[in-house]
Write a structure and sequence with these properties.
By secondary structure, the protein is α/β, with parallel strands linked by helices. Helices cover 39% and strands 13% of the residues. Helix 3 runs parallel beside helix 4 and helix 4 packs parallel to helix 6. This is SGNH hydrolase-type esterase domain-containing protein.
């Protein structure tokens, strides 16, 4: 049986196998050597991810431990609590606790598996206003880059506390000039 890498996260993960997506690029890179397995759940936050962990990653007798698992949540958690996506909001302290719980579950399930946390990406507030995902009656972005940055910092802190690697997507994306329009 081929080794596996699981991609666990929200819609950014769910749609990662779309044309040009990061999941598709990983699958292409590891073609014929590693199976890249998608476990993306659009709209999910860390609170909801915790509720499905055991169903998503059931204990398998006789091994089957993956090489790695990416954990990519935070974009929905960082939705502002007073805007139209408030139902997805998870307070920052709970987000950190939830990430710790997810990492603990995965480490207990598969002690040798490498776990990689990925921070939420930056938010193009003007772009979200121009192209809202649903009706936006308040004409204010339901997410801000400042809030996403706070969740990114929390994700980095959890990775440090757990002694695991982290990809700081929030910072790396903003290092590119005109990052907000790079893929329009």
């Amino acid at each position: 049986m081929r080794p596996k890498i699981y991609l666990f996260g929200d819609s950014i993960t769910e749609f990662s196998f779309d044309e040009g997506g990061w999941g598709a690029a990983l699958a292409n890179h590891f073609a014929r050597t590693v199976d890249v397995v998608l476990r993306g759940y659009g709209g999910y936050n860390t609170r909801w991810a915790l509720k499905v962990l055991e169903k998503v990653f059931p204990r398998v007798e006789g091994g089957g431990e993956p090489l790695a698992v990416t954990v990519f949540f935070g974009a929905n958690d960082a939705s502002l609590p007073d805007r139209y996506s408030a139902f997805q909001h998870v307070p920052l302290h709970e987000y950190k606790h939830n990430l710790h719980s997810i990492v603990s579950f995965l480490k207990k399930q598969w002690p040798k598996t490498q776990i990689l946390l990925i921070t939420p990406p930056p938010i193009d507030e003007n772009g979200r206003l121009r192209n809202p995902y649903s009706e936006n009656p308040v004409t204010q972005p339901e997410r801000t880059n400042e809030a996403a940055g706070a969740y990114a910092k929390a994700c980095i802190a959890v990775a440090e506390e757990c002694g695991i690697p982290v990809l700081d997507l929030w910072t790396k994306m903003q290092q590119f000039p005109d990052w907000e329009n790079a893929y329009l």
